[in-house]
UniProtKB/TrEMBL annotation:
HTH araC/xylS-type domain mapped to chain residues: 17-115
Lineage, uppermost ranks: Bacteria, Pseudomonadati, Pseudomonadota, Alphaproteobacteria, Hyphomicrobiales
Protein's recorded name: AraC family transcriptional regulator
UniProt organism field: Chelatococcus caeni
Any Pfam family hit: HTH_18
GO MF annotation, one: DNA-binding transcription factor activity
Length: 290
């Protein structure tokens, strides 16, 4: 039987997860204290303290982080004017947006767009480029088996943060965010051949065998084995370029075959705690044995 205190923690986690989902889905809408507290069914006098305790950041910081992440993707994947991107991110001027963006992403918006552009044919390495011309390195590593409690996300991969923002309160309420916990994203589809709205991924956290699936999470096992591990340093919005190089340049020249399992990402630090330019992500590509 779940004790009263434990049940209260779980109830708070469900309320805060509803708020996180609302913030991610309404970045251009009403995110006032009164609106968010109402969604959580909490008093406005106490909402901010509870939200910060459950998520590690304020609701305003969540919205700011997600808006900047959306802006980063817009800079590299579209030709929208920077002024329009700045306004959509909630900034009254390009100067204010530039200061905030540079503080988190390490580059002014225009410079970030030039170095990370994802538009077809723009900024893409030549086909003859080999592994040695890349800013990334790949190591072969024996990876241990993992067991994840995960929330399924269907939609653009850049929006998987919505699922993580629901997962963190669920895990915190159950005491699963200790120093040994690892956050992992599993990606099942090729964004080049599957429509963005149909892409499947899982936002997960490592758990022991005592944790079972429930109405919020399902269990995802990841098999042990040899993996090609590409370490990416920088914003999540730039990961697509790393995948492109890994599959187009490194894999054909490596002499290895991928295993019949999806790639996954291990997030080595927390976007709530470090600027985007300092994020460290390990892209793990399972390799066939033999």
């Amino acid at each position: 039987m779940i004790g009263l205190k434990s049940q209260t923690r779980l109830d708070y986690a469900e309320r805060i997860a509803r708020v996180a989902t609302h913030i991610a889905g309404h970045l251009d809408g009403d995110l006032s204290l009164e609106r968010l507290a109402g969604i959580a069914c909490l008093s406005p006098y106490h909402f901010h303290r509870i939200y910060r305790a459950m998520t590690g950041e304020t609701a305003a910081e969540t919205a700011r982080r997600l808006r900047l992440h959306r802006a980063a993707h817009g800079l590299v994947a579209s030709q929208s004017p920077i002024a329009r991107i700045a306004a959509r991110a909630g900034y009254g001027s390009v100067a204010a947006f530039t200061r905030a963006f540079a503080a988190s992403y390490g580059h002014a918006p225009a410079a970030y767009r030039r170095r990370g552009r994802l538009l077809p044919g723009a900024g893409r390495p030549h086909e003859e480029d080999g592994p040695m011309t890349s800013p990334w390195t790949v190591t072969l590593q024996p990876m241990s088996a993992l067991r994840l409690a995960a929330i399924r996300h269907v939609g653009p991969y850049m929006e998987i943060g919505r699922a993580f923002d629901r997962l963190m309160p669920w895990a915190a309420a159950r005491g699963l965010l200790g120093p040994g916990a690892v956050t992992v994203g599993v990606y099942y589809d090729d964004p080049g051949s599957v429509a963005a709205k149909d892409l499947r991924s899982d936002a997960g956290i490592t758990v022991g065998p005592e944790v079972e699936d429930d109405a919020t999470v399902h269990i995802v096992p990841i098999a042990a084995g040899t993996h090609a591990v590409l370490r990416h340093r920088g914003p999540y919005a730039e990961l697509e370029r790393a995948y492109d190089w890994l599959y187009r340049a490194w894999l054909p020249a490596s002499g290895h075959e991928p295993a019949d399992r999806p790639p996954y990402e291990i997030y080595r630090n927390d976007p709530r705690e470090v600027p985007a330019q300092d994020l460290v992500t390990d892209i793990c590509l399972p390799l066939a044995e033999g």
